[in-house]
Amino acid sequence: MSPSSNHFFLVTINSTGRQAASIVRVASAVGWHVRAQVHEKEGLVAEELSNLPNVKLVEGKLEDAAFISQLFKGANIAFINTTHWGDEEAIGRALADEAKKAGIKHYVYSSMPDHSIYGRGWKALPLWASKYQVEKYVRSLDIPCSFVYAGIYNNNFTSLPFPLFRMDLQPDGSFTWQAPFHPDDKLPWLDAEHDVGPALLQIFKEGPKRWNGHRIPLTFEVLNPVEACEAFSRGVGRPVHYRRGPIQFNVAVPPGYREHLEALQEVLGKQRAPYFGPTMYYPNEAIELWEGNRGIEEYAREVFPVEEAAHGLTWMEDDEDDEMDGTTGPSEKGDDQNSDIDDPEEVRAEAEKNYTGSC
User: Fold this and answer.
1) What's the DSSP call for residue 166?
2) Are 308 and 158 in contact (CB under 8 A)?
3) Are 192 and 155 spatial neighbours (Cβ–Cβ below 8 Å)?
């Protein structure tokens, strides 16, 4: 039986990541108590979460057995999204063990598929396969559990030169997205910051009675790359073109991520394997959980320019200038704005924040 709505006590880890931060915000808003693990309490998201009612940030390392032995005490539900910083499988097993000892009533783990298990010549995507191994271990324990599978984050798109989801600003003011996906292959999409929290809230409220052992694909739109670009274009108010091509590595990427992307390029691109594998169907369950989701068009219109401005980019100012003087097209300043990135470490740090996502 699920706890009553006013007695939920939630534990999250890696709580400044997009998925965990989303449920922390929503849980706080409905009056749940939250213990949110962070690696450090500095930074905009950590500071925001620390000021939310009913939220207590706890700083500590997930490799520290003494720390995680205290993490779940007094709580009754948990949302766990491990990352590949460190030994993900060992951390995932240790967290599940401690949650079981603490008597957690509903343990929701953010997992991903292992494409190699289907016997179709697909190799495992390294950063996803680790999550799948953790899922298998959680299933082996006598603990009420559910598993969410996150679609591609809308927030992955950026005009900065990161691999796979770069919206490359062209001299004529349009954007081009180059990726290895076949233009006809449907992909699952998710606005992680906006929609993970409300969906998880409903999963916890309905509890293990409905969701025990289930895999739930968190994706609210199913679009092929061309359709995704059309939606993005409607939102951002500029032409957006899709070009099928290899992943481009123009900046340093975190350890292991290049190998993951190369495997993704082969399995999801060249071999055209389904994103979540051949046995998962979507998006009906996610939409049933949360009808107020934000699609790519709305994201591109309302959020993408704000995130770009936060990265120091200025292309959106051209649109404002055009409205003032009646002209169209990019200004001279906007033609090659991405060449003005001076600090590679800053680019790398921003990349690492986004690499906790599904791709």
Assistant:
1) B
2) yes
3) yes
Give every CB contact of residue 229 below 8 A, 6+ residues apart in sequence: 177, 240, 241, 242
Preceding amide of 283 cis, omega within 30: yes
- Tokens matching residue 127: 């950063």
The 3-state DSSP class for residue 251 equals coil
Interval 106-163: pLDDT, tens? 999 999 999 999 999 999 999 999 999 999 999 999 999 999 999 999 999 999 999 9
CA dihedral over 8, 14, 19, 22, signed as positive or negative: positive
Neighbours of 346 (CB within 10 A): 13
SS3 178: strand
* 151 phi and psi angles, rounded to 5 deg: -70, -175
Angle, CA of 232, 234 and 235, to the nearest 5°:
65
Residue partners of 268: CB distance under 8 A and separation at least 6: 180, 181, 185, 275
Say whether pLDDT at 337 is over 90: no
Q: Cis omega before residue 163 (within 30°)?
A: no
Q: Do 329 and 321 meet the contact criterion of CB atoms below 8 Å apart?
A: no
The model carries a pTM of 0.90
Contact 286, 221 (CB under 8 A): no
Q: Which residue has the tokens 């967290």?
A: 95
